[in-house]
From TrEMBL:
Gene3D superfamilies: HAD superfamily/HAD-like, Trehalose-6-phosphate phosphatase related protein, domain 2
Catalytic activity entry: alpha,alpha-trehalose 6-phosphate + H2O = alpha,alpha-trehalose + phosphate
Entry EC no(s): 3.1.3.12
Protein name: Trehalose 6-phosphate phosphatase
InterPro entries: HAD-like_sf, HAD_sf, OTSB-like, Trehalose_PPase
Cofactor(s) required, per the database record: Mg(2+)
Pathway entry: Glycan biosynthesis; trehalose biosynthesis
Known function: Removes the phosphate from trehalose 6-phosphate to produce free trehalose.
Stated family: Belongs to the trehalose phosphatase family.
Domain of life: Bacteria
Length: 265
């Protein structure tokens, strides 16, 4: 990446990587240093993308990514790649959600009541997916264990899959993942090097894409935004990463360092 920055794609996850984890998903915001660091870096790279499980428009708003000098060509791939926002147009492109999403939306409240989902269980309606969060319950891991199988069964009945994450089970359509989204973005930009930073299970697919690209001769760098000490780290991600940094603060420091190196290049 440092050797051919003008041919390199940098892609990053949002929650837990660019934005610190907070109890209320609606209050998540990019680390204050994230946008300035990306704005310094982006003009020196082929392209920069944020690849997230969030709806694209929400990630743009919570990230503060719109109308930023230096980020005029940023792309946000939301809903695991099913939605796309480009800073150059300010438009979001997405296919309509499949009908199974409406069926799951209707089926979730009675199922959660029937299961006795503990107080604090909260459903985030993302339009094309429903995410059931347990972070605000007294026992988040216990609540996840209680809900995991019944939610998987509900999702399967309506043609959806369950995407597990940090204190969340997301019921979403199959067919998109961060790996496919990253591969397609690298192809579109005809990039010759790639770096990806993530923190959660949903990022493993993007790690896989970078590893595949390496096999095809495209140099790749894997960065893990580690949640060490929180009980939420993903050992598989950490084991496959080239660089381990302590959460969004560490990611920002890493981006700043990279920007510094490239400004001297
Ligand atoms: O792909 P990402 O950008 O990492 O998005 C994954 C999910 O992130 C959000 O949930 C996570 O962050 C919340 C805010 O810090 C936190 O409260 C929650 O426990 C985490 O799982 C978001 O709410 C989900 O919709 C995203 O799919």
């Amino acid at each position: 990446m440092l050797r051919v920055p003008e041919h390199a794609v940098l892609a990053l996850d949002f929650d837990g990587t660019l934005a610190p984890i907070v109890p209320d998903p609606a209050k998540a915001r990019a680390h204050p240093g994230a946008v300035p660091a990306l704005a310094r870096l982006a003009p020196r790279l082929r392209a920069v993308a944020v690849i997230t499980g969030r709806p694209a428009e929400e990630a743009v708003a919570y990230g503060g990514f719109a109308a930023v000098e230096g980020l005029g060509h940023l792309t946000v791939l939301g809903a695991y790649g099913a939605e796309r926002w480009d800073a150059a147009t300010g438009e979001v492109h997405a296919a309509p959600p499949p009908p199974g999403v409406a069926a799951v939306r209707a089926g979730l409240p009675p199922l959660l009541a029937e299961l006795g989902a503990p107080e604090g269980t909260w459903t985030e309606d993302k339009g094309r997916a429903l995410a059931v969060h347990t972070r605000r319950t007294a026992d988040p891991d216990g609540a996840l264990a209680l809900l995991r199988e019944p939610l998987a069964a509900l999702a399967a009945r309506h043609g959806l899959i369950v995407e597990p994450g940090r204190m969340v089970l997301e019921l979403r359509p199959p067919g998109a993942d961060k790996g496919a989204a990253l591969r397609e973005f690298v192809r579109e930009k005809t990039a010759r090097a790639v770096a990806y930073a993530g923190d959660d299970l949903g990022d493993l697919a993007a790690y896989g894409a970078v590893e595949e690209l390496r096999g095809e001769g495209v140099p790749g760098l894997l960065v893990c935004s580690s949640a060490t000490g929180t009980g939420e780290s993903v050992p598989e991600l950490a084991a496959r990463a080239d660089v381990l940094v302590p959460g969004p603060e560490g990611v920002v420091a890493f981006l700043e360092e990279l920007a510094e190196e490239l400004s001297g290049a």
